[in-house]
Specification:
- There is one protein chain.
- This protein is mostly helical and 239 residues long.
- Among the domains are: 51 residues, no CATH class; 82 residues.
- The protein is built from five helices and four strands.
- A four-stranded antiparallel beta sheet has the order 1-2-3-4, with no helix packed on it.
- Helix 3 runs antiparallel to helix 4.
- The protein is flat and about 85 Å long.
- The chain starts with 10 loop residues before the first strand and ends in a 6-residue tail after the last helix.
């Protein structure tokens, strides 16, 4: 039987090639409504603020029978989630029932009672606590020579890269300054800019050298300073 109700059961206006959704008209070629929604159906959903979109821009999952709200009653993904949640609940109930029938079951995650440990002739180790004077026991002390920094190898590799980058940056800045002065003697006015970038490269190279020293000394030296050149001139800056 022929009918003019086609896409999602909505009436099609053949002359205009648009669908009537009750509240407004929908253009299938544009994939958009021809007028904005008069309400915002879901304030917490960003797609709800797109008032020209159809079914929250997800027509494979939702339909919009009224032109105002999406229809989630036949949502396959939501139904799958509900079924999975229901099956997980049933499995959990069955597991608890089996444990109750078997007298608690054999749950390895439960902490054994003292009577069970006594039956197994198991002795728990007694932890060594610090003394009342605040001095930690010998087992907790560590020889400073045995202390190691974390990821010293990575620290050394990063230091090498930082030194190389800093030197390359400095050389490129000085070369650019010389090239500008050779072509345009008046370019001396831009010298402060090139010298500043060169100093930045020197600072970066110094930082990389400190990283290498920190890694080589196994973390016993001072931690790398991100702005060593600044602290060389102003020792108390940002400390």
């Amino acid at each position: 039987m022929l009918t003019d109700k086609l896409f999602t059961g909505q009436r099609k206006m053949a002359d205009l090639d648009i669908y009537h959704y009750g509240a407004r008209f929908y253009n299938p070629k544009l994939g958009r409504f021809l007028s904005p929604d008069t309400i915002v159906p879901e304030y917490i959903n960003p797609q709800g603020w797109n008032r020209y979109s159809y079914a929250l821009n997800n027509p494979l999952r939702y339909t919009d029978p009224t032109g105002h709200w999406v229809n989630e009653t036949n949502d396959p993904i939501k139904e799958q989630r509900e079924n999975a949640r229901r099956n997980n609940g049933e499995r959990e109930r069955n597991r608890r029932d089996r444990n109750r029938i078997n007298g608690g079951g054999n749950n390895n995650s439960q902490t054994p009672t003292p009577s069970q440990l006594a039956a197994l002739d198991v002795t728990l180790p007694t932890p060594t606590l610090p003394s009342s004077t605040g001095t930690p026991p010998t087992s907790f002390t560590q020889n400073p020579s045995e202390q190691t920094c974390v990821d010293c190898g990575i620290e050394a590799i990063e230091g090498i890269f930082h030194v190389a980058e800093g030197l390359a940056f400095t050389a490129a800045s000085l070369y650019a300054l010389g090239a500008v002065l050779a072509v345009v003697p008046e370019g001396l006015i831009a010298a402060p800019i090139f010298l500043t970038t060169a100093l930045v490269g020197i600072n970066f190279a110094m930082f990389g050298a400190q990283e290498i020293q920190y890694a080589v000394t196994n973390g016993t030296s001072a931690e790398p300073d991100p702005i060593p050149l600044v602290h060389l001139v102003f020792p108390d800056f940002m400390k």
